[in-house]
Design a protein that fits this description.
eight-stranded mixed sheet; Rossmann fold; six-stranded parallel sheet; 410 residues; 16 helices; single chain; alpha/beta; 16 strands
Length: 410
């Protein structure tokens, strides 16, 4: 198969979708397929071997789409278009308000309807959430992104959802959708790391090897950090404990954190942006990861998948987008971070029970391998489609049932 991956970002760009698409391309080539990546960041075609990267002159505007058509038409058949969908990353940037830019992928959605190849879409994000009382601009954006769902679902043969509950939301907007399947986001980091690298991290940040190292991995948006920051002064007040902030923006957040809590200056360290290998080693060095999310633990959170794959003990939170696997698998410890006293007690209990942390970490890596790994993703994408003999709408009608939240291993 010749795969045509369309994405708003691709390395050297940073971000979950950029690294996801790169990893997806590499895994598909290992399967024996050929991959072309089209991204709208400007530049020239790059890549080597079985992956070719085409950087369009603009962010999927009409001119860029014409050029993309010409290049795709030269790719041998069979071809398949696979869109990595984030609504605000796949269209020409427009100014909504001062210093605020949006990309609305109307041109791309209309272009997809004209293509003869099978079109698949991976929904990394679905639409802009609009809260009650939101300003007019936000409500307009919400309406536009809902319309985008109708347009793109009208073009595609198969749709993959990083959050299974999105099936219900899509059915609110689309009367006759294509087949929808849950496709969790695997870890973008190595799933194994050299113990010597993790040991070097511990020696660098701890006074003694037996000291406790807490960690958080992510992009340090306030929605996440606000959930655990209030716990840190008490958690780190006890001796022989440190906190390691891992990832892009971690140094900025540490500076802000220490300004608010000066007593943490010697207790909290930050890595800044790291290579994938160094980020994995830093996570592997931690004894316990604090990974809460405002919408709850879910399979779309690559910052949760990374410590899960590396077999770390994780404390996280449930929310409206959490799948039942998080409570049923025993792979994470769950607490209510909104109740700081209860969360603190739960974390201290884990700190006091190293055997419980080891068991959590073991179950985490087992669950990742069974449910979320790249190997499982590629099996799902490259398997023989039992509905292939039917049209996409007919197949969807035959398969009309809720997505299986249990996510069987095979």
């Amino acid at each position: 198969m010749n795969w045509i991956l369309i994405t708003g970002s691709y390395p050297p760009d940073h971000g979950g979708v950029a690294h996801y698409t790169e990893h997806l391309a590499q895994e598909l080539t290992r399967h024996g397929d050929r991959v072309w990546v089209f991204t709208g960041k400007g530049g020239t075609a790059t890549g080597s071997g079985a992956v070719s990267v085409v950087r369009l002159a603009s962010q999927f505007g009409p001119r860029a789409l014409r050029e993309m058509s010409r290049q795709i038409d030269r790719i041998p058949e069979p071809r398949r278009i696979f869109v990595q969908y984030i609504p605000q990353a796949l269209g020409p940037h427009i100014t909504l308000r001062r210093n605020r830019f949006l990309g609305i992928p109307i041109s791309l959605c209309l272009w997809l309807r004209k293509r003869s190849e099978p079109v698949w879409v991976m929904f990394h994000e679905l639409r802009a959430d609009v809260l009650p009382g939101a300003p007019v601009q936000a409500r307009l954006l919400g309406s536009l992104t809902r319309w985008m769902i109708r347009l793109i679902m009208d073009s595609c043969e198969r749709a993959f959802l990083s959050v299974p509950r999105w099936e219900r939301e899509i059915l609110e907007d689309v009367e006759d959708p294509c087949v929808m399947e849950w496709l969790p986001i695997p870890s973008n980091l190595p799933v194994q790391t050299n113990p010597a690298m993790a040991g070097a991290v511990r020696r660098q940040v701890l006074e003694e090897s037996s000291d406790l190292l807490l960690g958080h991995f992510g992009t340090f948006k306030s929605a996440m950090t606000g959930m655990f920051e209030g716990l840190l002064p008490e958690l780190l007040a006890k001796p022989r404990r440190r906190m390691l902030l891992i990832g892009q923006n971690s140094t900025v957040y540490r500076t802000q954190l220490v300004e608010r809590h000066p007593q943490l200056a010697g207790r909290v360290l930050a890595t800044g942006a790291l290579s994938l290998e160094d980020a994995a080693a830093s996570i592997a060095a931690c004894d316990l990861m604090l990974q809460p999310f405002p919408d709850g633990a879910s399979s779309r959170r690559s910052s949760l998948m990374a410590p899960l794959a590396l077999g770390r003990a994780i404390v996280t939170s449930l929310g409206p987008r959490s799948e039942p696997v998080w409570t049923k698998s025993g792979s994470v410890d769950i607490t209510d971070f909104a109740n700081q006293a209860a969360a603190l007690k739960r974390i201290e209990n884990l700190i006091a029970r190293p055997e419980r942390r080891v068991a959590l970490g073991r179950r985490a890596s087992e669950t990742y391998a069974e449910r979320f790994s790249w190997e499982r993703t590629i099996r799902l994408l490259t398997r023989s489609d039992p509905s292939a003999s039917k049209g996409p709408r007919e197949a969807a009608g035959a398969a009309r049932h809720p997505i299986d939240f249990a996510l069987p291993a095979d």
